[in-house]
């Protein structure tokens, strides 16, 4: 016996509400659902779809920013590495004195540790602030690359971090709203389907299922019944095949007899006719 199952995905919830909303939009007064229920279904369909769109937009924005974030990290890492190399070269040639190390908090000639984003951001901040302070105090700017090339990506990353934090807050907010609306939607669909089934309870089971499905009520067969139906279908198909084979052989036998009779007739001497 098929059983009713409430929607368990947002797409199924929207489909259930949309079916009722379409009935509400028709010109005929529905004999099953009251105007109040139809209005509630239509309003919830519009609002729930809107909440889904807001959540999807927030996630899409977050994902787009993640792609930009990775590109900026790659360029920022390259610029940090190249700037530090240029600085070490300037130290070795004497173009810049050893006392300049204090501006960047750099010791020795080791390459910068850029193994994680925290380190990348820390190095970028030290180099940008240190180089600007050194130039402000009369130092010669490092070139190839200049600090402005590095600063561009650092500033972009700072802006993108702020945007990502905002997007994350929006995702959390819209997800919480969507979860609450799911519960309200499930309660409304349950009420609608109970009302629909009650309106057709006077019909036979098969007729009631058929009528309720017109209103979007979803029914599923239990696995045991589905298997039984499949077996019955296979048995019926096998029986039909056997019957068809039997009829074929009977027809073939009749045809053979007719052909034999025809042969016999042809063999009868003309004089005997």
Short note summarizing the structure:
With 273 residues, the protein is mainly α. It has seven helices and two strands; from the N terminus they run βααααααβα.
Structure, described:
The protein is mostly helical and 273 residues long. It has two domains: 3-199; 221-272. Helix content is 75%, strand content 1%. The chain has seven helices and two strands; from the N terminus they run βααααααβα. It has helices at 10-25, 35-93, 101-104, 117-136, 147-199, 205-213, 223-267, and strands at 3-4, 219-220. A two-stranded antiparallel sheet has the order 1-2. Helix 2 runs antiparallel to helix 5. The protein starts with a strand and ends in a 6-residue tail after the last helix. The model is unreliable at 254-273 (pLDDT under 50).
Major sheet strand order: 1-2
Task: Report the total helices.
Answer: 7
Q: How many structural domains does the protein architecture include?
A: 2
Main sheet specs: 2 strands, antiparallel
The gyration radius over C-alpha positions equals 40 Å
**β-sheet strand percentage:** under 5%
What structural category characterises the helix and strand content?
Answer: mainly alpha
Quick check: average pLDDT? 84
Query: Care to count the β-strands?
Result: 2
Low-confidence stretches: 254-273
Q: Could you say which overall geometry the principal axes of the C-alpha atoms support? A: rod-shaped
The helix/strand order is EHHHHHHEH
Helix content: over 70%
């Amino acid at each position: 016996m098929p059983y009713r199952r409430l929607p368990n995905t947002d797409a199924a919830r929207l489909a259930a509400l949309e079916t009722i909303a379409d009935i509400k939009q028709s010109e005929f007064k529905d004999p099953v659902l009251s105007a109040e229920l139809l209005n509630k279904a239509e309003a919830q369909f519009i609002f729930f779809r809107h909440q889904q769109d807001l959540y999807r937009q927030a996630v899409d924005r977050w994902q787009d920013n993640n792609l930009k974030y990775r590109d900026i990290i790659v360029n920022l890492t390259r610029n940090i590495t190249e700037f530090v190399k240029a600085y070490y070269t300037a130290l070795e040639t004497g173009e810049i004195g050893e006392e300049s190390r204090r501006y960047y908090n750099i010791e020795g000639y080791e390459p910068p540790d850029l193994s994680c984003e925290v380190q990348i951001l820390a190095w970028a901040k030290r180099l940008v602030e240190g180089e600007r302070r050194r130039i402000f105090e009369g130092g010669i700017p490092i070139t190839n690359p200049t600090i402005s090339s590095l600063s561009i990506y650092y500033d972009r990353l700072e802006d993108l971090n702020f945007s990502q934090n905002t997007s994350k807050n929006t995702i959390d907010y819209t997800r919480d709203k969507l979860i609450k609306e799911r519960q309200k939607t499930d309660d409304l669909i349950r009420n609608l389907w109970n009302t629909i089934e009650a309106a057709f309870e006077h019909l036979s089971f098969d007729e009631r299922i058929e009528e309720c499905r017109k209103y979007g009520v979803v029914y599923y067969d239990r696995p045991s019944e589905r298997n039984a139906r499949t077996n019955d279908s296979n048995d019926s198909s096998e029986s039909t095949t056997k019957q068809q084979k039997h009829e074929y052989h009977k027809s073939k036998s009749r045809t053979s007899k007719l052909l034999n009779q025809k042969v016999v007739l042809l063999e009868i001497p003309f004089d005997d006719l």
